[in-house]
Amino acid sequence: MKDLPFTLDQLKILKAIVSEGSFKSAAETLYISQPAVSLHIQNIERQLNVSLFDRGGRQTKLTKAGSVILSYGSKILSLCEETCRAVEDLRNLHAGTLVIGASQTLGTYLMPRLIGIFRQRYPQVSLQLQVHSTRKIAWSIANGQIDLALVGGEVPEELKSTLEVYSYGEDELALILPKSHPFVKMDTINKEDLYRLRFISLDSQSTIRKVIDKTLEKHYIDTSKFKIEMELNSIEAIKNAVQSGLGASFVSSSAIAKELELGILHWAKIENITIKRNLSILINPFRYKSKATETFLKEMLALFNNKISSRYNK
Question: Of 9, 41, 64, 90, most Cβ neighbours within 10 A?
Answer without folding.
Answer: 41
